[in-house]
Each structure stands twice: as C-alpha cells, then as structure tokens.
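To whoever is on call:

I kicked off a structure prediction for a single chain this morning and the downstream step that reads the tokens threw a length-mismatch warning. I double-checked the sequence; it's 341 residues and nothing unusual in it as far as I can see. Pasting both halves so you can look.
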Amino acid sequence: MDMLPPGKRETEPYSFGLVLLPKFSALTLSSLVDPLRIANYCDGRKLYDWQYLSADGGDIPSCSGFSIPTQMISGDDRTWDAIIVCGGWNAERYDDDRLLNWLRLLGRRGVTLGAAETGSYVLARAGLLAGCSATIHWYCHHAFAERYPQTELRKQLFVIDHNRMTCAGGTSCLDMMLYIVRRDHGRVLAAEVADQLLYAPVRAADHVQKHTQDPEQTALPQVLRKAVEVMETNVEQAIKIPQLAKSLALSQRKLERLFNRHFGCSAVAFYRKVRLQQARVLLTHTDMSVLDICVACGFASSSYFSKSYAEQFGVRPRDHRLAWPDSDRTPIWPGLNEATR
C-alpha cells in the first residue's frame, strides 16, 4: 500500500472536504468524521478540520431520513488537502458534470481524492481511478469491475494508492481514518482515539470485507464457508450441488444438512439466491441487458430467471433498474437470510 502525503503536523490542520451524495450512509459519514474529532479532542490542538460539501449546497438527505447542511462546491474556494466522496444509494448513476469537473480540477492540482462506500463510482466516472488500485463495498464489486475494468479493484477494507484513497464504507472508514491519524501523529494518539471509540481491534487495510470469508469472525464451519465461496465465485458457470459436495469431500446429504442447519434452506435454494443477488446488482449498477444478465448469472432460461427474480424481489427484472426509486420511502434489499422465500 502506497502512503498518502503526510498531514500537516505543526501549524495548519489537515483539511478534509466531505462531498455528500443524496441518500448517503450516516454510519459511513460518522466513521469518517469522529476519528478526526476525537484526535483533536485528545491532542488538545486542531489537527484536522472538515467541511460538508455538495454540488448544489443546501441540505442533503441521508438514507436514515435526516439531512446535513452543506456548502456548494466552487473552483475558486479554499485549498483542500483531501476530498472524500461519501457515496449514497444510486451513486452508480450519479452524473453531475459540475462535481465531476470539480474533482478533475482538484486532481490536476494534486489534491488527495478519496471515496467511501459507493463513492468510488463517482471518482471512476470522472476518470480519476483509471490505472489505480481501489475498493468499493462488496455488494457492488462485480458490477463496478464490469463497468470500470481499467481500475484494479481489491476486495478489502480500504486501499491507498498514492493520492487516491477508497474504502468500503461503514466501519471500514474507522480503520482508514485511524490509519491516517497514526500516519500523521503516531501510534499512541491513534490508539487513544480507538479507545475513545471503543473500537478494537483496529483492522489492517487488506482485511476481508465479508465475515463469511473470514474464519476468525464467523461461527460457520470452515467447509460451509468454502461452499459459499465456491458458489459466489461460480455464478455464471453454475456448479452442480453433487459436484460441489464432491469437491469438498462431503456427501451431498451432509452438505444439505449443513445448509439447512445454518441457513434454513437447501443448498440449491441458497445458490439460486446468490445468483439472484448478483443479478440484482448488475441490473441496478450496470446498463447490461436483462438477457445478458440472465446468462451472466447462470440461468439457462430467461423465463425461469424472470419468474425466480419476481418471486424473490417482488418486481420483474426489466422494472428493477434503480436500487432505491424516489417513489419509495425506504429501500428494500432482501439478503441471503431470505433464501427460502
């Protein structure tokens, strides 16, 4: 991992501009800001400052229902040390030329540019992640890679590549910001900030995002974790359950018992849900045709795919192009625990 330029240590605070997209995550924003606030508190000096920004200014709604007042971006405004785009729902379709051009301008000036959660889509749309290593929230990893193959996408908590920094969102922002505090002001202050946050252990950048892939953070048997991993990496060319069981040196009956015990459904039902989840992300995060998505997610029949999708998500694939329509008060995104529905 390449180091960011070091923060100002003696005189001026290191300044962050936090660009809020509509329906941003409150947890992501708090996880970015609170380590900076607590670092100032513990040190007794203003080591960091920050400001909330947006393309238009004014109040920006979070996905939790409250809004944050922001300042409008401007090409003539203050000099920033770092800008972080806080992604929101439907960030994959966010296309405001004012923001994109402003980010490009700051990039040419050498400002460190970052993104949290789905904010990586905005940096990529602006052409600011081409040739860089980056990360994004795990659920849209494949869709992002499909749209922006020129970015080296990594499945980890956060990635710092020269003057680009990206993180998966949520609590991974704590890990990234604690890394920055440690970089600027040492391990002692970073540890004190983590203690104030009651956050331990602090995770390294390359820590995996999903618990099912982390043997230290899940109660799932190792062989079941491996089965899920095989399913998730064999979406387009679906593997047969007897073949999967054989590859794991298990009987099919024992494998089915494990899925029923830990997930409450058969291996077939779970695998179908994994593929439908992938289809849902490709529908909402790319412009691929429904037929291409059907094939990419391992369904041999388009009619069966449409029927299964509608049964699972309550909407036909062709009508599910926006993850959170403006007409809906709250988003609905059933997870794998709904596999038996």
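Update from on-call: the warning came from a stale cache, not from the record. Cleared it. Sanity check on the structure: The longest strand covers residues 14-20.
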